[in-house]
Amino acid sequence: MWSYFRKLSLVVLVLWMGGVGLGTAGGDNTAALSKILDGLEKRYAGPGFSAKFFQESMLKAMQISDTAEGSLTVKRPGKMRWEYTIPDVQTVVSDGRTMWIYRPADNQVMVGKAPTFFSGGKGAGFLSDIRQVRKSFAIEVLKAENDAYYRLHLTPRKASADLADVILSVKKNDFQVDQVITHNAYGDETQITLSDYRFNINPKDTLFTFTPPEGADVVHVDQP
Fold first, then answer.
1. How far apart are CA 16 and CA 11, in angstroms?
2. What percent of the chain shows pLDDT beyond 90?
3. What's the rounded Cα separation, in Å, for the pair 168 and 142?
4. For residue 79, what are the domain limits?
């Protein structure tokens, strides 16, 4: 059961997380939101970055949760590599066109079209091009629990069961995204906490392609 849920949590992450766009606000709220978005775009304007992540996924209906951690490498625009190390080794790779999910323990590679899972910022895709933040969701500035952070509430303009809303915690002093919280229509939640950033790196393009090992079970996830 736990092994199944750990595998499911990765797919949940890919399907739930989405991009965002500018909402309506008045007066000081509009100025504050513009300042935050401008700061985000400047912070993530380099060719790429890397970070460590901690993920907690909670399925409300089953009343269970699971955690995972690893590292993330991003290259603008659209290239991402998620390396899970705990509790199970698995890799999610996207070159902007194709997505691969490799699970060594199962000798399995899931292959799909990247736009199906990451377009419009899905699968944390907005981190690979932060300008997506202005395009797809309405944004509201919330009161943050920690004075060192801005807190943004993102509501998708196109409603779907997979994604009800997103909450971003943005550090005030350098505009880096330290936490992403997503909810779906069923009340399930995924929290991703990012740390140990390295900005303005230029990863090689070969890091964002994947060749299935010989003998691996290849499953095409977006074919009828």
1. 9
2. 57
3. 10
4. 2-206
pLDDT in tens, 46-70: 999 999 999 999 998 888 899 999 9
Q: Does residue 213 lie in a domain region?
A: no
pTM of the model: 0.82
Number of domains in the chain: 1
pLDDT digits (tens, 9 = 90+) for 89-137: 999 999 988 989 999 999 999 998 876 666 545 566 778 888 887 887 8
Q: How many helices (H) and strands (E) does the chain have?
A: 3, 12
The alpha helices in 17-112, defined as continuous H runs, are: 28-43
CA-to-CA separations, 174 to 49, 56, 159, 169, in angstroms, rounded? 14, 25, 31, 12
- Whether 217 is in a domain gets the answer no
The CATH number of the domain holding residue 99 is 2.50.20.10
Q: Could you report how far apart the first and last alpha carbons of the chain are, in Å?
A: 27
In a domain, 201, yes or no: yes
